[in-house]
Write a structure and sequence with these properties.
This protein is of the alpha+beta class. The protein has one domain (2-83). 35% of the residues lie in helices and 35% in strands. The chain has helices at 5-13, 18-26, 73-83, and strands at residues 2-3, 30-33, 38-45, 51-58, 65-71. The N and C termini lie far apart (40 Å).
């Protein structure tokens, strides 16, 4: 897997640990393949308040290229709304 400069900058700015990235890619709770050629790996990170980490990877390149990673607020909100 190749990590873009943008990816490296984003995880640094967002204080996302590399081990969380690895866990998300290798042990995702959910994987979404998108029509734009990306795969979204999603994992709940217990050590970070049970927030959902989304890692976006371009699977149309060889090697695959990690594009960005972020804690997806929509997933937490959607889950909370569904409980009400």
């Amino acid at each position: 897997m190749e990590f873009t400069k943008h990816f490296e900058q984003m995880i640094e700015e967002r204080l996302i640990r590399r081990d969380w990235i690895d866990k998300t890619i290798h042990h995702a709770d959910k994987i979404e393949d998108r029509q734009d050629g990306t795969r979204h790996y999603i994992k709940q990170i217990n050590e970070y308040g049970n927030r959902w980490l989304r890692v976006v990877v371009n699977i149309g390149t060889n090697p695959n290229r990690a594009i960005t990673a972020f804690f997806d607020r929509r997933l937490g909100r959607d889950k909370h709304e569904n409980q009400n």
